[in-house]
Each structure stands twice: as C-alpha cells, then as structure tokens.
Design brief:
Blueprint lengths: L6 E3 L3 E5 L1 E3 L8 H4 L12 E3 L2 H8 L3 H17 L10 H9 L7 H7 L4 E6 L19 H13 L2 E4 L4 H8 L5 E4 L4 E3 L6 H4 L5 E2 L6 H15 L6 E4 L4 E4 L8 H12 L5 E6 L2 E6 L5 H11 L8 E7 L2 H13 L3 E5 L10 E3 L2 H21 L1
Helix pairs in contact: 3-10, 6-13, 9-10, 11-12
The protein binds magnesium ion.
Magnesium ion binds next to loops.
C-alpha cells in the first residue's frame, strides 16, 4: 500500500487521503498507474498525492494553503453530483469499461467456479442511500434481508468509515464481520459458523493507541466548528468526520479552514476528503484495502487461489480495496456510481437498489446450485 490513505465515515464519506479531484487527471499511485485509464473527460478524475508531498507542499505559503482548501471543497462538489444528465459519449465509454455487475452476472458466476466467494460491503451509499443527516442513513428491510441471506452462504464483511458500533447498529446483523473506522476496528461474528468465518473471534485495532488523541481532537473540532451552521462532527473512534452536507456551500471554505487548522498541533494525524466530508485520522498505513487483506488472511485465504473476493463500494476510500484486488489478480471490485469516475473497480452498479439485486442474485444462484447438487 502506498501512503495515500483512505476513509469513509458515517455518511458516504470516503476518502483517499489528500486526494484532489481534477478534470482529466490520473491516479499516480504505483498500483493504479498500471491500470487502464478510463478516458472520460468530464469532471471526474482524481489526483492522489502522497501525504508527504501534499501536506508539506500545502504549507509552503498561504496562497498554496488556500488553494488546497479550495481544492478539497471543489473535490467534494465533484464527488457529490446531484443530477443525472443524459448519457454522454464519455459516460457510455465508461460503462463499457466498467460494465454493470448485474448485466455481467453470468460471467461473474463463471469466474467463481471452484472458488469461495467472500463478500465485502461498504455501508453508506452502498447499502444505504446518502442522506442529509448521517444519523438517518438507514438501510431498508429488504436490503437487510438480502445481506442476511448472502451471509448464510458466503463470509460477509461490512467495511465502513463509521465506527464499528454505529455501523453494526445500522445493519443489525450479528453474523457478519465488521470493519469500522475504515478498517481500523475489525471484529468477527459473535456466534459465527467457524467453517465459514474462520477465526471469528478476531478483534483487531491497529490504531488503538490513538483513541485518547482522537477524543481530544474531537472536542477541539466541536468547539471550532460550532459557529458554522449545519456543521456536524462525528466521532468514529479512530476517525473524526466533519460533515458538510447541511452546511451552506458558501461556508464550505471557512469550515475546511477550521478543520485544517486543527492538524497543525497533531502531526500524527492526517486529513482526508470525501463526499461532503473531511476526516481526520491517524497516519498509520491502514485502510480498507488493508482490512480486506486482513480479513481474507483471517478466513484462511491469505495466499489462496481458491477465493473470489467481491468488494462493493461507492467512494474513494473503497478504491484502496479495489486496488488490492487488482494487485492480487483475483476478485471483483464493483463501484456503486451513477456517474463516470476514475476507479480501479472492474464493474459498476448504479445505486443501492442494484446492490441489493446483485446480492439477491448471488443467493438465488447459490440456492439453485444447492438444489441441483
Ligand atoms: Mg460509502
């Protein structure tokens, strides 16, 4: 993994640390650089800068710093489109490069022959819609049923930027693995079938020592941002999320400045940006991709060819997991998006309802198979 990071908290909130969206740009990380580059030309590409380069460069002078904050804000706008226009040629090209996982279902099943499918699901924007109030990002009963059914047949993990307890409270299924705080807080099913869940008692918290610091910074952020109407700070234990969803766009730069200013006293923390959210998290090299690798290892598939990980997510923090799958040369990355985005995922689904349909088809296929054999 490179030292660019990742995140997604409580909302649809994901982030590659220091990632700036720019038109027609490309990914610079070593893994991504080797990937085919979609040739869409709209407002979608991302430039990913290493923390070392980005943060130091930002501090060169005030002008650069201001530019940086504006870049975050512009990036949030670009990653949170609100309208779907008729398909442009670029969009059609993108869909050809990232076909619908529903449309390609038979091919996907073919690729899984002789392999154990392991399912990884982001939460916000993947299982639940992105809503104005992150506390109300509820998944539907039907979606919960689909996830429950999938977990009956395949080891299944929720990988979210939210703190583990919070995402568990939304999903309400004890038979799953949960990787909260962008994978920095991993726990297995309470009463899992060990044949399916391997070392189900796992509890892994690689950033545990940062908790007191995060709590301090949470208090500081609450104080600094309270004068901005609509700003919401969420403590996700190993990741602090500042939500912009309810803030007037005219105040986004002010809010971003306030969040950024907190970091100067905490060199061991870094800032990342996502869909209407800025997040502060430890500078450890850990992300959703690392969480995916850890969970596969825990399930006994660390170096196995007999596994087909399927990772579904909607945001930049999920890109780290997509890149891990590319690097391993196995599994499927599925990006949830109605719009063209530069991504390391191979397939796409437009919105959570399609994710549900995909999960339901996986279950139907497995049930049919069980009846035949
Ligand atoms: Mg998400």
């Amino acid at each position: 993994m490179t030292n660019q990071s990742v995140v997604d908290c409580a909302s649809g909130i994901n982030v590659v640390a220091m990632t700036v969206a720019l038109a027609n740009s490309s990914l610079f990380s070593p893994v991504a650089a080797a990937l085919p580059k979609p040739s869409f030309g709209g407002s979608g590409g991302y430039i990913t800068l290493s923390r070392t380069n980005s943060i130091k460069n930002i501090e060169i002078n005030n002008g650069e710093r201001v530019k940086r904050v504006h870049a975050w804000v512009e990036s949030m706008r670009a990653s949170s489109p609100t309208r779907k226009s008729s398909l442009s040629d670029d969009h059609k090209t993108w869909i050809l490069q990232h076909p619908s996982a529903l449309g390609m279902f038979e091919e996907i099943i073919e690729a899984s022959k002789g392999k154990q499918i392991v399912v990884f699901l982001d939460y916000d924007g993947t299982l639940s819609p992105i809503v104005e109030d992150p506390e109300k990002a509820f998944m539907t009963t039907e979606m919960r049923e689909a996830v429950r059914d999938v977990a009956k047949y395949f080891p299944t993990a929720i990988v979210s930027g939210r703190c583990r307890a919070k995402v568990h409270n939304f999903v309400k299924l004890s038979e799953l693995f949960y990787a909260g705080s962008h994978g920095m807080d991993i726990k297995g099913p309470a009463n899992g079938d060990k044949r399916k869940t391997g070392n189900h008692g796992i509890l892994f918290q690689p950033a545990k020592e940062f908790v007191p610091m995060m709590n301090n910074v949470y208090k500081i952020l609450m104080e600094k941002t309270k004068i901005i109407p609509g700003a919401k700070v969420e403590n996700n234990k190993f990741c602090l999320s500042v939500h912009f969803r309810r803030v007037d766009e005219k105040l986004w730069v002010d809010l971003a400045e306030k969040v950024k200013s907190v970091l100067k006293d905490y060199p061991k923390l870094r800032l990342t940006q996502g869909r209407k959210v800025l997040e502060i998290r430890p500078t450890i090299k850990w992300d959703k991709g690392k969480a995916l690798e850890f969970l596969l290892e825990s399930l006994g598939y660390g170096n196995s060819d007999d596994v087909l990980p399927v990772y579904i997510g909607d945001d930049r923090t999920d890109e780290d997991a997509f890149k891990v799958l590319r690097k391993r040369g196995q599994g499927l990355g599925i990006l949830v998006s109605k719009f063209p985005k530069e991504t390391a995922a191979s397939y796409s689904l437009e919105e959570p309802i399609e994710v549900m349909q995909f999960l339901q088809r996986l279950v139907e296929w497995k049930r049919t198979l069980a009846n035949i054999t």
